[in-house]
């Protein structure tokens, strides 16, 4: 275990006491093994306050749209990757799976399932495209004020509602 000898105030030079009064801390080093260093670090981390989490922040359009832009990008990429890999796997495995098979499977679904699948694809697609254009506008240095950021955010939401609905029921 580590032990640090404490000096009495009378043994501390006046120069160090003056520095302590000004808020300057003197540095004390000790030799420790890596295991002891780790134990000290763990003990220090236990005394740190917890970081605030998202629940303490008021939801704002800016971070909500940013989060959904990332989520829709990952979701669209995963869907594209899944369809591409399915086509590749079935062609390598000799399983008959082509566009005609896919069309016949979708044609056999109930209308509610078709609309649901189209909505699940069209709304994220419309949102991601619109928010991507919004980011390109920002890259040109336009609409970077707080008012402009919110204005473009509401345009993205309106575009998503209109185009997503159009693509769903097309």
Automatic annotation (TrEMBL):
One term under GO cellular component: mitochondrial inner membrane
Membrane topology: Multi-pass membrane protein
Pfam families: Sdh_cyt
Location in the cell: Mitochondrion inner membrane
InterPro entries the UniProt entry points to: SQR/QFR_C/D (IPR034804), Succ_DH_cyt_bsu_CS (IPR018495), Succ_DH_cytb556 (IPR014314), SuccDH_FuR_B_TM-su (IPR000701)
GO molecular function, one term: electron transfer activity
PROSITE patterns reported in the protein's UniProt record: SDH_CYT_2 (PS01001)
GO annotation (BP), single: tricarboxylic acid cycle
Location, primary (coarse class): mitochondrion
UniProt feature coiled coil, ranges: none
Record keywords, A-Z: Heme, Iron, Membrane, Metal-binding, Mitochondrion, Mitochondrion inner membrane, Quinone, Transit peptide, Transmembrane, Transmembrane helix
Membrane-crossing segments per the record: 152-169
Signal peptide interval: none
Gene3D superfamilies given in the database record: Fumarate reductase/succinate dehydrogenase, transmembrane subunit
Family: Belongs to the cytochrome b560 family.
PANTHER family: SUCCINATE DEHYDROGENASE CYTOCHROME B560 SUBUNIT, SUCCINATE DEHYDROGENASE CYTOCHROME B560 SUBUNIT, MITOCHONDRIAL
Protein name, UniProt field: Succinate dehydrogenase cytochrome B subunit, mitochondrial
Organism of this sequence: Ogataea parapolymorpha (strain ATCC 26012 / BCRC 20466 / JCM 22074 / NRRL Y-7560 / DL-1) (Yeast)
């Amino acid at each position: 275990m580590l032990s640090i000898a404490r000096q009495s105030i009378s043994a501390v030079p006046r120069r160090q006491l003056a520095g302590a009064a000004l808020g300057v801390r003197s540095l004390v080093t000790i030799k420790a093994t890596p295991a002891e260093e780790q134990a000290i670090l763990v003990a220090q981390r236990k005394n740190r306050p917890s970081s605030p989490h998202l629940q303490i922040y008021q939801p704002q359009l800016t971070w909500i749209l940013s989060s959904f832009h990332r989520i829709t990008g990952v979701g669209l990429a995963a869907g594209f990757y899944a369809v591409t890999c399915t086509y590749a796997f079935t062609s390598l495995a000799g399983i008959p799976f082509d566009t005609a098979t896919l069309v016949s499977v979708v044609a056999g679904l109930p209308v509610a399932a078709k609309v649901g699948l189209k909505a699940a694809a069209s709304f994220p697609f419309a949102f991601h495209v619109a928010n991507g254009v919004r980011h390109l506008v920002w890259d040109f240095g336009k609409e970077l004020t707080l008012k402009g950021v919110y204005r473009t955010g509401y345009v993205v939401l309106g575009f998503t509602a209109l185009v997503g609905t159009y693509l769903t029921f097309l």
